[in-house]
Amino acid sequence: xxxxxxxxxxxxxxxxxGVAVLLAGAGLALGPTGRALDEASSGAISRAARAxxxxxxxxxxxxxxxxxxxxxxxxxxxxxxxxxxxSSQDWFLLGGSVSGKLSNNIATATVVLELDAGDLPxxxxxxxxxxxxxxxxxxxxxxxxxxxxxEKPDAPPRRLVIAVAxxxxxxxxxxxxxxxxxxxxxxxxxxxxxxxxxGPEEFAARAKxxxxxxxxxxxxxxxDMQKLGMNALLAVGQGSERPSRLVIMxxxxxxxxxxxxxxxxxxxxxxxxxGGISIKPAAGMEDMKGDMGGAACVTGLMHALAARKxxxxxxxxxxxxxxxxxxxxxxPGDIVTSMSGQTIEVINTDAEGRxxxxxxxxxxxxxxxxxxxxxxxxxxxxxxxxxxNHYAGMFSNDDELANRLSAAGQETGEKVWRMPLGKEYDKLxxxxxxxxxxxxxxxxxxxxxxxxxxxxxxxxxxWAHLDVAGTAMGSxxxxxxxxxxxxxGVRLLDRLVAEHYEGR
Length: 504
Fold this sequence. Notes:
By secondary structure, the protein is α/β, with parallel strands linked by helices. The chain has 15 helices and 18 strands.
């Protein structure tokens, strides 16, 4: 991962060195600091704005190098339009946009969060700005040893100073957001790692590092899972020389003696998916290193909850396997008995993630009696056909949980769209030879996959399944993410917990 800037907060003052970033409302409405800098430069900023026809409309920018009368190396003016109408998500994205304009080895950049006297962003907005800036600075380049001669340096500023009215409150507000941001970056790192580096055992070791944050981490080996009857999960990994693992991460923010049911998150962790005997085409198979995006999110979420000392008891469980096609691999037509006792006819070995999740779902219900379960998986290409790369597919047996997830998605920008479940789809996975088969045919593939999982969830347990195949990896670049792995879901689920389940 590339080096990230050190982010600090200070009281409003005129920047004296390095790069200054100013905000401008509609009509080039600068705040007092911006007007003072314009005056000190004999009107260089306002003259440049007129020449460039810059009016301060949202997402526009004006760039001045070495302005006369100032000791600053550069002044960047960013248009925000009507700042009073900006939401916390707008400030978050603005931070990412500004960070993107600073990527050229700047030592110090000072962002003045100030507009007209009546448009001073509060501490929460400043914290969101800082979080967006930090996420946007992320780049996964640890395996690059050389740069091309004509490649411009793109390291973020070594120090990013945010000048805001109440800098002390902003610094405090950013503390929690920074924990969530670090969890997102952890998830990105895990998704971006190549599969030769990150196998099931190595992934489990990364999760084990959360013990530094007082997360209780337990790792089940294959022999442990065999005793529990996790034959569906184990069948997926039996063709690989790398042994499968189940990792249980527990954050006891309310204390181990609390009688409250824990909130539970389950992640699919197929560290590489060839498809097994039902092997995938070669083109694009390299992307299957990201088939553990659900497990990456759960690991990043547990980091976030522990790092910000969330007042909740939470459990994260990830099933880690590699799906390979050797002589021991499961075959189409095999029948396996899941931990729940239900039998599964494996029609397609490339529909493996649901086999991993079904045993993990049974485990968490028997072990933890959860308040709710949210599982995440890069489960189907069908969800990308349906929703593209901007929404994750959401399936749920509980309206309240689904509505809360939808609201949290709108607030964080990690959006979900509820998809249907129904008996008509459920019939498509009935099998002639077992209790069910693992695929339901060509049509409605994301729905039949969710129906499969639903068979392993007890009726009285609120449950939501998030198919993140289009959002956890290879999703479009945004103001806050230029990385192949997005870390999708960490901010979404942290917001769900923070708004509805902490301290209850």
